[in-house]
Design goal:
Length: about 280
């Protein structure tokens, strides 16, 4: 698959692809929640390693997601810089000690505590982003909707999730179509253009993209209304996958990891692991 391929479900024969959509959804939510709550560096490193291993098992190649990763890396670095600019002493406040690495200008003094705090933020990206990409790239939207509906969730809500996942590649396709039209008119948006010109050009695509999205939503709504969607209490599904032994094993592994994170919250007497105090 080329680097400019759309980000969406990709059918492959891997243990991750064979799992139920419900299993992947629950695992993604649980891992994301515990990854965002905990600031225990030992736990976060373990979770990051686990996420990268699963990413490898899912056989997701770098060139398939290179564009998305560049966007994520850009905003991640921007977020880390913003944290330091707006709260350069936040790490000192959290850990209760102050070890200066070097004195800067005014209040911008770099401390070990601040550096350690922002390192934890960086690790969190490796904890939460891979499960999200795995969920998007390995989950058939229709199969996910049927799985959610089988556990008692309204099929209307389940179908809304399915449509949202299906809509992601369509939005990307519209974005690229509009971008090519802009470039045909002389508005250079490729890597040849300066960074700020590309950013400004991509922002101008937002308005036509919004209108195109609204038009597609109206078309889908009309089609569903004509087919009397939602008139009955239940519906049948073309694709349905019951939970197998592998699903229960996967949920058990994720459950153990999450319980480990909760246990560390108790041992650390809070969300933060503090290496600066004995």
């Amino acid at each position: 698959m080329e680097a400019n391929s759309l980000l969406g479900y990709q059918a492959k024969k891997t243990p991750i692809h064979r799992l139920s959509g419900l299993t992947k959804l629950l695992s993604f939510l649980l891992l994301s929640v515990i990854g965002m709550i905990s600031y225990d560096t030992r736990f976060l490193l373990t979770m990051a390693l686990f996420s990268l291993i699963i990413f490898r098992v899912a056989r997701i190649r770098y060139r398939e997601i290179v564009v998305v990763l560049k966007f994520i890396a850009f905003f991640s670095v921007l977020n880390l810089l913003a944290v330091y600019l707006f709260a350069p002493e936040y790490g000192v406040t959290i850990y209760g000690t102050r070890h200066v690495i070097f004195n800067g200008v005014g209040r911008y003094t770099l401390t070990q505590e601040q550096l350690f705090y922002e390192a934890n933020l960086l690790i969190k990206y490796f904890v939460t982003i891979p499960p999200g990409l795995i969920f998007l790239l390995t989950t058939n939207p229709s199969e996910l909707a049927s799985s959610i509906n089988r556990i008692g969730v309204s099929y209307k809500f389940a179908y809304a999730i399915s449509l949202a996942l299906r809509y992601i590649p369509d939005i990307q396709g519209d974005f690229r179509t509009i971008a090519k039209a802009q470039q045909a008119r002389g508005n250079e948006l490729s890597g040849k253009a300066p960074l700020f010109q590309r950013v400004r050009g991509n922002l101008t695509i937002a308005i036509p993209l919004i209108f195109a999205s609204l038009d597609r939503i109206e078309t889908i709504s009309a089609a569903m209304e004509l087919r009397r969607f939602g008139k009955k209490k239940g519906r049948t599904w073309l694709i349905a996958k019951p939970l197998q032994t592998a699903d229960y094993i996967a949920l058990a592994v994720v459950g153990v990891l999450c319980l480990g994170g909760v246990a560390l919250l108790v041992l650390d007497h809070g969300r933060f692991y503090n290496p600066f105090q004995g």
